[in-house]
Amino acid sequence: MTSQQFDVIIIGGGLAGLTSAIDLSQNNFKVLLIEKNSFPKHKVCGEYVSNEVLPYLEYLGFNPFEFGAKRITNFELTTHNNKTIQTELPLGGFGMSRYEMDFQLYQLALKQKVTVLKDTVINVIFENDVFSVQTKSGQSFTSKITMGAFGKRSNLDTTLQRSFITKKSPYLGVKIHMSGNFPENKVALHNFKGGYCGVSKVENDHINLCYITNYEAFKRYKDIDAFQNDVIFKNLALKELFQNSNIEFDKPLTISQISFETKNPIENHMIMCGDSAGMIHPLCGNGMAMAIRSAQLASGLIIDYLQNKIDTRAALERKYAKVWNKTFSLRLKVGHSIAYLFRQDWLAPKLLVVLRRVPFLIPLIIRMTHGKPIKV
Q: How far is CA 118 from CA 36, 266, 267, in A?
């Protein structure tokens, strides 16, 4: 059977995969995007996006505010013993659900003539400078470049024998949409024993609540409701929000085995983007922007390579690894450090006291986990 040929194959239709596909197709390359799920689909995600990526989204022809995204300017932090601090975000951001954002980017990708296939990739083989991508349905495709944008954790990670996949991760993520009263210009981070919850408004005036907790702490309880009542509601801001809002989901979305282990931005000659390349701790609330930013970095270099401005594949891989690390390594280190400190229940309230006394530290920390607006 003859394989269908493409310039670029992108595995995964999340933010990184979709924005890369749109960018590459706009530059007249033949792109195949393979995504195992149908659009639209909810995902466990904080749904706050830093404004650093707005120039790139606008360059791609996507304006999130056309689809109801909320402009976010303020930040609130509370501890498990109900100490609070508030500040303005240095750059600001917007709130938009993955359900809506992924779907609208998918529509734009189709408009830009990206070939989108609903299927699951089971193997990627690199031989003689060509990628062969095989899917669950028995199809085979070839390409000059293959990009991995398949999220936090995938069976393909196991197939590729990526080192992080062998290490168990203790984290569980839960996401709920609610309707109720919450300022649309604010993103809040509420700490509780064993975890924290991000809160922000998205389109349709829904409130997104997404929390992460240690699975060992969670499994002592018989279900999510019991955990929320006994642990999460000790934070009075969260208790009030839950009790005065209506849940819009039939049941919460959950994801387990969330890994913050170091990953390689290049794997088996594949260029990794988004969570496939590395995850910032959700405490820092900027994973969506990181995914889009990594897509912009990768797409620009891939375009140069396919236009023979970068001479060799080895040079392409070196350049991408270098720019990825330069752009994200500090963010990841700071994110890990902040998350570690806030996991110490005795320490979090003391940290808040320090931040109240030295308020300029908060914008500084936020800047260290966010990037500057993308130049396009």
A: 5, 25, 23
